[in-house]
Amino acid sequence: MKFPTPRKAAQARAARPRETARGTRSAAQIQRRAGSAIANPAAAPVVAGAERRLRVSTYNIHKGVLRDFTGLRRVARIHELRARLHELDSDLIFLQEVQGQHQRYARRFAQWPAESQELFLSKSPTAQQAFETAYGRNASYLHGHHGNALLSRFPIVGLENRDVSDHALEKRGVLHCTVEVAGRHVHCFVVHFGLLAASRERQLDALLEWIAAAVPAGQPLIVAGDFNDWRNALSERLCAGACVAEVFDSVHPRMLQRAAYFVRDRLAEAGALEPPPMSRLPRMVRTARTYPALVPWFRMDRIYQRGFRVADARVLRGLEWARLSDHSPLVADLELLEDAA
């Protein structure tokens, strides 16, 4: 009897939609809205340039609980985290390690939210609904579950969650949401890849196959999340396979950075320096360091896009962010191109 290889098994799991995805609308409402938009594209309003601009953030929130600086006790940070997220003034927030339910934390922490974290975070501290939400469950256990989520100020017209777990010890998933921006469909993939390099390679294979099948060529696309790709080994293949660019590669660097990379590339051409692994890409800046948040060193989190102009990209560092999660958030200001399909 032949058993499937790990690669084929991961791809087969990725091909099955998870039934654990949920949003603020019912599935029937989402399908009706998506079908109406496709059947009557002329109904989309004519929009001004300002309505094509959006701010995108990605953040691994560590389930809203972090150890204090002594490392001896856990502290719930979910309320502070919500306040800071709303201060970002983002239009799309890609979240990882979102706690859909945790009965032990609910008993342990007096102010633990009664609702799932993506719904709690979607509301401003004044308890007004500010975002539509989508949640994809990745890991389930006796006392709860967690996964990825998308918070959107734009209508969510479609969602699907897929299991891309490569082995039983790490439950990983990718959440795909279609949002309507300026009368167009923008495809958003919330990513959380595994800790093992081989697992990440197979998970990227599954993601690229999914994008090729689900996203028409030329349509706007954002892929963001925690890739755990601290060696930056996946970027080149993701950029080539999905025709995307990393936001920190798209913004204009400072003159000193430009000069440093120019000298590096010339020395590599002359043989005086070993060429960098990413030399085939027109890299002008390096991906932001986001982990650990207190002293960021590893480049774990990324935002990739196509069909947008990148106005700015930055990583938010400092003690105030290190108190909320072990990752630092990324923020990018984008503008949807007029010629995007």
What does this structure look like?
By secondary structure, this protein is α+β, with helices and mostly antiparallel strands. It has helices at residues 6-14, 27-39, 78-87, 103-108, 117-122, 197-214, 235-242, 247-250, 255-269, 319-322; strands spanning 17-18, 21-23, 53-60, 65-67, 74-76, 92-102, 132-141, 144-152, 156-163, 173-181, 184-192, 221-226, 245-246, 301-306, 308-315, 330-336. Helices cover 27% and strands 30% of the residues.
Short description:
The protein has helices spanning 6-14, 27-39, 78-87, 103-108, 117-122, 197-214, 235-242, 247-250, 255-269, 319-322; strands at residues 17-18, 21-23, 53-60, 65-67, 74-76, 92-102, 132-141, 144-152, 156-163, 173-181, 184-192, 221-226, 245-246, 301-306, 308-315, 330-336. It is α+β, with helices and mostly antiparallel strands and 341 residues long. Helix 1 crosses helix 6.
